[in-house]
Amino acid sequence: MELLQLPYDLTVCKVADIADIDLSREFYFIGRTDEEISLVCRTEDTPVNTTEREDGWRSFRICGVLDFSLIGILSRISGILADNGIGIFAVSTYNTDYILVKEENYDKAVRVLSEAGYKVEGAH
Q1: What sign does the CA torsion over 122, 48, 36, 26 have?
Q2: Which residue ranges form the domains of the chain, and what is each CATH number?
Q3: Higher local confidence (pLDDT), 2 or 9
Q4: 3-state secondary structure of 15
Q5: pLDDT for 61-88, tens place per residue?
Q6: How many whole angstroms separate alpha carbon 69 and alpha carbon 115?
Q7: Can you tell me whether residue 113 is helix, strand or coil?
């Protein structure tokens, strides 16, 4: 399986109002529940009015469109990373999954995933 390294720093944050998010940006994920509005975005695109914020994330995208009948893809990747002491923040879209790791664990994540047989491509 192939993973693509995304070439930018990411921020995970919470915003008080969805109007604070610039929806014209190229890359972001919004999660809204009855408790919060969460946002994952490029660090430089982080809204000024965040209520909580954590910078320093990097990401991999699982390449290709994943059929909903496929089982265990994210579980295997997160298991490899967990076995090596690397925590994740995962985001799923209709097409695929994104795995975020903290910047200080990124090189190690690339190495252990490569050693486990994943083809990790892209810019670092």
Answers
A1: negative
A2: 2-122 (3.30.2130.10)
A3: 9
A4: strand
A5: 988 655 555 556 788 999 999 999 999 9
A6: 26
A7: helix
